[in-house]
Design brief:
The chain has a domain of 113 residues: 2-Layer Sandwich (hypothetical protein PF0899 fold), CATH 3.30.2320. It is rod-shaped, with a radius of gyration of 62 Å. The chain is built from six helices and four strands. It starts with 59 loop residues before the first helix and ends with a helix. By secondary structure, it is α+β, with helices and mostly antiparallel strands.
């Protein structure tokens, strides 16, 4: 009986082209699928050599949704980055503003503190000059003979080359100076003259080359200036004389 299938046998040797050479037996094919003309218009296409369907195309709606999600994510990232940048700029601006305000506040307090220090120094100077004034008044009243030491120091302050020296003192102080400073006056050839315009406790020495003002008001001005105060000497006790102008008005 003749078999319905062809056996897989090689073609005859040295034979010419035959029907066998124009066909591939089924046994030699790994896989195959019959071709259908409708496959060209369908949504899938077979993969080469396997017959499996290819990847399906993405619908337009799903593609649009994907693009929207990507755009939304990109916008979120851009907004987050811009927000961080704006926050950093705000912090720097705020820090600069606070620093400037603190600087102005410290400067204002510094000016106020300087003013308080000046007022305190002035008050201390006024207090010191007031106490010094009381001490000087007490010394002039209790120890008037100290005028002799004042006259002696004034004469010694002149250069040795000075000539025509005259010492002017208050009439009440003349005998005190004559007794207490006689040696210095005689050594320098100075004349002792009474002058009612000279306040008690002081003197004025004149010569051909210089003069020495050792009156009480002049010595007081120098002492008050060293204490940081500008006040004039007065024999009259006056509580308001040593106070600043603004305190006198009040």
């Amino acid at each position: 009986m003749t078999s319905s299938k062809f056996k897989n046998v090689p073609p005859p040797e040295g034979g010419k082209s035959s029907v066998y050479s124009r066909f591939i037996p089924r046994e030699e094919l790994a896989s195959f699928e019959a071709w259908n003309p409708d496959a060209l218009s369908s949504g899938t296409a077979p993969r080469a050599g396997t017959g499996a369907p290819a990847v399906e195309s993405v619908p337009p709606a799903e593609l649009l949704a994907t693009q929207l999600r990507a755009a939304r994510q990109s916008g979120y990232q851009d907004g987050y980055r811009d927000g961080l940048s704006a926050l950093d700029e705000f912090k720097q601006s705020y820090a600069a503003q606070i620093t400037a305000q603190l600087g102005r506040l410290v400067e204002s307090h510094g000016v106020q503190l300087d003013g308080l220090q000046q007022q305190l120094a002035q008050a201390i100077a006024v207090c010191a000059t007031s106490m010094a004034r009381q001490v000087v008044r007490s010394e002039l009243a209790v120890r008037p003979e100290l005028v002799a030491a004042v006259a002696q120091e004034a004469v010694e302050a002149l250069l040795l080359s000075a000539r025509h020296i005259t010492v002017r003192v208050h009439p009440d102080d003349q005998p005190l100076v004559a007794r207490g400073a006689s040696e210095v006056l005689d050594a320098r050839g100075a004349r002792l003259i009474s002058d009612a315009s000279i306040a008690r406790g002081g003197c004025r020495v004149d010569s051909d080359i210089a003069s020495v003002d050792s009156t009480v008001p002049a010595r007081w001005r120098r002492a008050a200036a060293a204490l940081g105060s500008v006040t004039e000497w007065t024999d009259e006790p006056d509580a308001g004389a040593d106070l600043p102008a603004d305190e006198e008005q009040t």
